[in-house]
Structures are given as C-alpha cells and as structure tokens.
Amino acid sequence: MRIACIGGGPGGLYFAALMKRLDPAHEITVYERNAPDDTFGFGVVLSDETLGGIEHADPAVYAALSAEFARWDDIDIHYRGQVITSGGHGFSAIDRGRLLRILRDRCADLGVGLRFRATAPPATDLAATHDLVVAADGANSTTRRTHAADFGEHLDRRHCKYMWLGTDLVFDAFNFHIVTTPHGTMQVHGYPYSADASTFIVEMHERVWRAAGFTSRPDLRPGDSDHDAVDTCEKLFADILGRGHRLVPNNSRWLAFTTVRTDTWHRGNVVLLGDAAHTAHFSIGSGTKLAMEDALTLAASLHENRGVRAALAAYEEERRPVVASTQRAAQASLEWFEDIERHTAQEPRRFAFNLLTRSRRVTYDNLRVRDPAFVADVDAWFGATASSPQPSAPSSPAPMSSPAHRPPMFFPFRLRGLELKNRVVVSAMDMYSATDGTPGDFHLVHLGSKALGGAALVMTEMVCVSAEGRITPRCAGLYAPHHEAAWSRVTDFVHRHTDAAIGVQIGHSGRKGSTRVMWEGIDQPLEEGNWPVVAPSPLPYRPGVNQVPHELTPAELDAIRDEFAASARAADRAGFDLLELHCAHGYLLSSFISPLTNRRTDAYGGDLAGRLRFPLEVFAAVRAAWPGDRPMTVRISATDWVDGGTTADDAVAIARAFADAGADAIDVSTGQVTPDEEPAYGRSYQTPFADRIRGDTGIPTIAVGAISSYDDVNSLILAGRTDLCALGRPHLYDPSWTLHAAAEQGYSGPGVTWPVPFRAGSRRPQTGRTDGPRPRLELVRGNDDATTAHRRWRPQRSAGT
C-alpha cells in the first residue's frame, strides 16, 4: 500500500511504524510541519492496557519506553490543609519529547519516510495518489475542519481555562491540589514524568480566571508562552512549588478544552486518528493514549481485512464504543472539575472519595481492592455521620466478607416521619396490567416480591388520578373506591410480611394518554376506544400520529387539581407510606413545566415561574390532603435533552420551588418530554443532575438512570451525589436484588432483613469446584520452540485448603 500520514505526533508515527513492520513493502510517508526537535507539552501518561498492546505489537518500542518510564501508585489529594492519599492506582509516564524520539527512531529504522518542516498537501490531493490517508493532525485537524460536514464534526467548548506547564519539582505521586483563593477555587493536576521533571497543569473555571485578572493573549505567536501568566501562577502556587522550584513554560498559554466528536471517522480512503477524530479531557488520562490505541487498531484492521473500505469500517466499529465510553467518563470528569466549588463544602474524606470516583470508572469496590484502608476510613466517617444513629464502620480495613463491614447502601435514611432501612428504592415502572384502573394479583405479586427482596422503598407505577388521565387502558388508577380497596390489599401484604415501605406515584398522562400498552406500540394511539387528551397547549406528542390535545381552561385545571387531592386522600386510606407527585416524562404536570410543550400566554405559561404555577398548585393541594408526618417526593425531568427545552439550571430552580413548597426529596429523572430528544445515554447517565440539585439546594435527592450494580449505589451514596438510588430494570431481572447485593458483599445487619422463610437461601449456592490441583507434569514450549517436559514440584494441599 501507499500510505500518507498527516501529522507526526505519537499516533501518526506509531501507526506508520506498525504498518511498516507488518509489511516492509508498504510505502509510508509522514508529514510533520514542525522540526524534529520541536515538541509541545510535557509528560504523557499511558495505561497498563495500552502498554500491553504496545508490548505485543512492537517489543522494540515497548522496551525503549519501559526503560524510561516514571512509575507511581499513589494519588495525593491536597485539600483544606490535609493530604489524603489513595494507593494502588498504577501510572506510567514519559517525557513527550522522548516518546516522539523513540517513535521517530523506530520509523527511521523500519524505512518510513519522515518529512519534517513539511506541510502536508490537502487530504483530497493525497487521497488521489495514495491508497490510504491517515489524518493524525490533532484536535485542530485541518483535514476534519475542511470536511466538517462529511465527518459530522461536533465541537463542545468547555467552561474552564487551563494552562499546561512543567516544573523542576519532582512529585512522588499524582497530585491534586485544590487551592482556595480570593478569586475562587483553582486546581493543579501534577505528576512526575522523569527523574527531574513533572507536569503541572493549572485549571480553574472561567469566572475564577477572569476574577484573578487573567486574560487571553491573541498577540502571542505560535509556540510562544504567556510569561506574565506563568509568573502569576508561580506566585499563586508558591506553597506547592516550595523554595527553589520554578514553573517551566513550553508553548504555555490559557486554553479552553474543546471536546471533539465526529459522526464518522472516515471519508473515502481518508481516516481520522486520535485527537483529529475525538478528544477526551486530560483529567482522566492522555490523548496520546487514545491515539496510540487507535493506531494499533487501525493497523490491525488493515492487516486483517481485504480492502481499505472494509478495514476502515472494522477500525471504526471496534474503536468507536471504546472511545465513546472514554469520552463519557471524560465528560463526567471535566464537568466535576468545572463544578468543583459545588463539592468544596464536603468533609475531606468524602471530597477525596468523590474526586477519585468522579468519572464513574473508578468505583467503591474498585477502590476497596486498590486501597482498602482508604475506603475503610471513608466508611468510618460515613457510618458516624449517617442520618440515623448506628454503629460506626470499622476504622481499619475489613475483608469484603466480614460481617463488620457495612456498605454505604445499607445505612438508613429518614424522610419526615418515615425511616428507610437502606438507600435502595424500587423505581416506579409502568406494568400495564390493571383492569379499568384496578390493580390485581399481578400487582400484589410484583410489588410484594420486590418488598420481600430487601429494598427499603417500593414504588408503584404511575397511578392515574382519573380514567382520562391514564396513559393506556391497562394503567392503574386511584380514582374509584374499588381501586382504594385493591391497593389496600397490596400495602397490607407489604406491611405484614416485610419491613419495606411502599410509596405511590400519582400522575396524569396529559397529551401522552390514550395510547397502546408498551409492547404493542409505545406512544402509538389506540386502534379503537380512544379518549380525548388534554395539555397546557394544543401540541400533539407526535404530529400526525398522536391526538391534538385540548388546551385546558382555568376551570378545568381546578378540577384536575382536585382529582390529584382526592387521589392523595385515597392513597392515605389505602395505607401508603410515601406519596410521589409525577412531574416528569412529558405527562401533564411535566408538560406545564417545559417550554417546549407549554406555549400559554396566561398566568400558567411564559417564564419558569408561570410554567410552574399549576404543578405547584397541585403540589399544595396534595400536600394538604396527605398526612403531615408522611413524606412527599416529586419526580422531575431535569433536562429535556433538546435545545430550547428545560436545562440543568432550570432543574435546580424547579427543585428549589418544590422544596420551598414542602417536598421532602426530588426524584431526578430526565427527558421523555419530546420524541426529538437526544439523551447522552451511558452508565449512571442521569445521576449528575441529582448531584447538582442536591449540592445547590441541599434537598435530598433520589438518583435514577442506568444504575445497575450495588457498586454504583455505594459509590453514589458515599460520594454524596445522592441520598437514595432508584433501580428499575435490575429489580425486574432479580426481585431480590437488594438481598443478593448484601449476600455478595458479605453483609448481614440492620440494613437488610431476609424474610424468615427465605433465610436458608441467604448464602450464595455452591457451584462446581474450580480449584482442583494442577497437574504435576506439564508440557510447555521451550526457548528452542521444541516441546519439552518439565517436572514441577508442588506441595500437597489438604482437603480443607
């Protein structure tokens, strides 16, 4: 093949070396506009996974790199005058200039053509004369920007300013310095990369940057540093640098990180690699790591597939999910640092745990494996400060199977007069199994089994306040006396046979009503028997598919408000412990809140205060009808995931309004308001909204959204991102999810109670043995590639070991 690489950074050089090593007949040229010795940046961090791939693909490169790596295990978090250390992390870093020299030397040895101080011809020109063009020209890729529409370029400029510096101070660990200044909070990310130097990244929110008097310098030429800013940073961080140490600039100037995303990475025979295709914030690792992993996969795909077209498709298919996962983690991390002042009120141990788990990749269990003493210390603090009196967690590491270890998810939590035994909630999930609004045996078994399964609170599906307020004909209701009696049967079972609480979620479908059950066509109108739907404005959910709703008059709004209050009184008589008002997912109350669905010009429309007027009137009526000692929560959609819709800032204001009206907690969901939404799906993807609401308002929150493991629950609770976690699908998969979470963590105690008839099953069933003795005589492959027999002596093991 004839291959051109635009860009002589680590990704482009490594790809060229790999391809030339795979087939010396390839003609490969690398174009680099800078001189060979020009290098910008300082240390590069590579993961063990990346290094393993390098070792397998090119042992010569791996050997040269590993001989010069700076390695360390600890992370030191400097916060409020304390240094909190977490160990067992494992990092490897190398000087970026040295990395480039190693890769250039390898390319030269293999016969790759290297053209320095050479601006590459346009990618389209190269594509006409080459079999493959690899654009590894960085985050500001000319290739990508020239063909932005073809690649589907999306640029997200973030809100922090940062400057990449070096220092002659050699850190002995990865350092996070959280510095309180008169201007606001600043942070330093520092790590060693050689025997005499460290990377020193200064970062702060743009408002802090402006308050500190920093400015952009458009007058700087390429390669120049902002020496005035560097001098100011030396003064600001003199306590970190210590006597005699300096900051070292290298093309150092204030930048705002831009997350690059693209819809596709290839266009004909031109392919993007590394930062040209995608960027990930430096707080979770190095863009060099992603670029070198891209290079490995691209080379392998070209080697394994016939034809460039098939190879590029295979490359993108393999790498895109990995990169998307990394970008989600990076997004969570960069947003955490953007909002760092929301967390600086936290106690130092909780703050440190929160910082370490910010990306959702490092978790509670992961940290317990890496550094059990650190997690035990945070556990001890949490146990001593949890909402109700309980024995403290141990101050020294406890093995995972120790009964003394009480995971955070099994501490109680109080809402008004209701004490929940743990932090697990069975989320409200529509079952579409009622008859004329009446719950039956299915609901008894469904909710009863979840209550027996160990969760502290079991929520009903949305229970509709009127027949016209149902989503489908099979939705449950609480608007007739026989509904009340049927629900009493369920609550009586839960109270008689379990120590769980049971909550009811009441709502009205609004414009999303009169549709088929989910498995027959979600949000599709009924084939017959439709009833009229209502909304704040006459806007159908799907134009041309769903009905145009009737715009509610003030008198009709009063009538619906009274229906909510009547349902609340019925819920009280039916024996529910908690009531939740459904103001999410595009149903009636939610559609009043969103500007996408509320176009009214009267007192119930307009600005957010006007759009909240009717939901708050309903809340007040329900709160008055519901017993004062029992809690009320409100479920909201924190964002509509559509431009022009409800935002995270709005969500804080909405939560604060309901809290001021008497809500005891906010159940924080997102979306489902419009079919045009584009959610940022991913693990625990909705939890940052709960975190923000909790941090900004102080009101307890219930987090939802792809929380699937007890590790996630423990991480969220201990980090202080939420107070309760609601899980839906995991409880459908396993009604005893909470009991099994306790068993798998080796916990038995007041946070979870096995029903007496179930106690014989409270230990994981035994499986077949997998620990039998290995053969004493093994055939292994020797250095001469001949099969030889080796006799290995092993001590005999007793049956009990």
Could you explain the architecture of this structure?
With 801 residues, the protein is α/β, with parallel strands linked by helices. α22 (648-661) links the parallel β26 (632-637) and β27 (665-669). α1 runs parallel beside α11 and α14 (364-370) packs across α15. The chain is globular, with a radius of gyration of 30 Å. Residues 771-788 have a biased composition (Basic and acidic residues). InterPro entries: Aldolase_TIM, FAD-bd, FAD/NAD-bd_sf, OxRdtase_FMN_N, YqjM-like. This is Bifunctional salicylyl-CoA 5-hydroxylase/oxidoreductase. Pfam families: FAD_binding_3, Oxidored_FMN.
Task: Label this structure with key terms.
single chain; 801 residues; alpha/beta; disordered C terminus; Aldolase_TIM; Bifunctional salicylyl-CoA 5-hydroxylase/oxidoreductase; FAD/NAD-bd_sf
Topology at a glance:
Layout: E1 2-6, H1 10-22, E2 27-32, E3 43-46, H2 48-57, H3 59-66, E4 70-72, E5 75-79, E6 82-86, E7 91-95, H4 96-110, E8 113-116, H5 123-129, E9 132-135, H6 142-146, H7 148-151, E10 153-167, E11 174-181, E12 184-194, E13 197-205, H8 206-211, H9 227-236, H10 238-241, E14 247-248, E15 255-262, E16 266-267, E17 270-272, H11 287-304, H12 308-338, H13 348-356, H14 364-370, H15 372-385, E18 413-415, E19 418-420, E20 424-426, H16 441-452, E21 457-464, H17 481-497, E22 501-507, H18 518-521, E23 534-535, E24 550-551, H19 554-574, E25 578-583, H20 588-593, H21 608-625, E26 632-637, H22 648-661, E27 665-669, H23 687-697, E28 701-703, H24 710-719, E29 724-727, H25 729-733, H26 737-744, E30 777-781, E31 787-791
